[in-house]
Write a structure and sequence with these properties.
By secondary structure, the chain is mainly α. Helix content is 70%, strand content 12%. The chain has 4 helices and 3 strands, in the order αβββααα. Strands 1-2-3 form a 3-stranded antiparallel beta sheet, sandwiched between helices. Strand 2 and strand 3 form a beta hairpin. Helix 2 packs antiparallel against helix 3. It holds the Pfam family Longin. SNARE involved in targeting and fusion of ER-derived transport vesicles with the Golgi complex as well as Golgi-derived retrograde transport vesicles with the ER. Belongs to the synaptobrevin family. This is Vesicle-trafficking protein SEC22b.
């Protein structure tokens, strides 16, 4: 184990801001997995046959908990072991992630999360389709508004024409009546 502790120390020295934020490095029968976040490196050493997904889930769990408990204090740390009390959470999480029942539970939770993700994607697709249908409906409403304005304009024109025809008919009847009275009666 001393050899792997030395390798971990060397790895910590080589990791910098340009390093990938998630990485796995093989070393003999073991694999180092690490996650970087805001200048803090979370590192775990696992057997090669240990699930990579579970290892990164463990690291993400540690990262989230550390951010909640100590995230704002990281930049102001003056001594090397300022967060030693976080070790109790690390041990508890380690036990949960290495326990086979907990791993089965994690697999079940991941399956449920994938189901929820699938349902959410379907819901988003449905909303997008409704949006397209609403766009079509909006276009039809706009066309209907344009057509109704044209109908209103045409109706006014026809009413005006009809009024002119009625006035013309009345004027014609009056003129004929006057002509009739003038030539037939006198």
């Amino acid at each position: 184990m001393l050899e792997y502790q030395n390798q971990a120390k060397m790895l910590f020295r080589k990791i910098n801001e340009q390093s990938p934020i998630r990485c796995s490095i093989e070393t003999g029968p073991y694999v180092f997995h690490y996650v970087m976040n805001a200048g803090v490196c979370f590192l775990v050493l696992c057997d090669q046959n240990f699930s990579k997904r579970v290892a990164f889930s463990y690291l993400e769990d540690l990262r989230n908990e550390f951010d909640q408990q100590h995230g704002s204090k990281v930049q102001s740390v003056a001594r090397p072991y300022s967060f030693i009390e976080f070790d109790t959470y690390i041990q508890k999480a380690k036990k949960n992630f290495t326990d086979s029942r907990a791993r089965r539970n994690l697999v079940n939770i991941n399956t449920e999360l994938q189901d929820v993700q699938r349902i959410m994607v379907q819901n988003i697709d449905d909303v997008l389709q409704r949006g397209e249908a609403l766009s079509v409906l909006d276009d039809k409403a706009s066309n209907l508004s344009t057509m109704s304005q044209k109908y209103k304009k045409d109706a006014r024109y026809l009413n005006l024409r009809s009024s002119y025809a009625k006035i013309g008919a009345v004027v014609l009847v009056v003129v004929l009546f006057m002509l009739f009275v003038r030539y037939w009666l006198f």
